[in-house]
Amino acid sequence: GSIGPDWFGTDVHHKTLGIVGMGRIGLALAQRAHFGFNMPILYNARRHHSEAEERFNARYCDIDTLLAESDFVCVILPLTDQTHHMIGAEQFRKMKKSAIFINAGRGPVVDEQALIAALQRGDIHAAGLDVFEQEPLAKDSPLLSLKNVVALPHIGSATHETRYNMAACAVDNLINALNGDVSQNCVNPQVVKK
Question: Among residues 32, 84, 135, 163, which one is catalytic?
Answer without folding.
Answer: 135
